[in-house]
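Our platform keeps sequence and structure together, in a single record for each protein. Nothing more is needed to write down the fold, since each code stands for a local backbone conformation. An entry from our holdings is shown next, in its original layout:
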Amino acid sequence: MSEPKTAGVTDPKPATVDGKKPEDVTISEGLSKIFEAGEELTPEQIDAMAEQSKNAAKQSQDARDNKNAQIESGKDH
């Protein structure tokens, strides 16, 4: 048998900067960190992330449309 990829790893989730494990962070604390990080982004970084998000959404939509087209074509025959 092969060993699992996490063999020998006691805790695969790293501690955050403030010493808390991810599962111990509250939603409010997490959102606060997200807003803080967002304030540090440059306009160029924001534009790049927006473009990446648009591309990912387009790919997801195209994949969904292709799957739906395959399903529909199977029903027609």
About this structure: The longest helix spans residues 43-76. The mean pLDDT is 81. The radius of gyration is 21 Å.
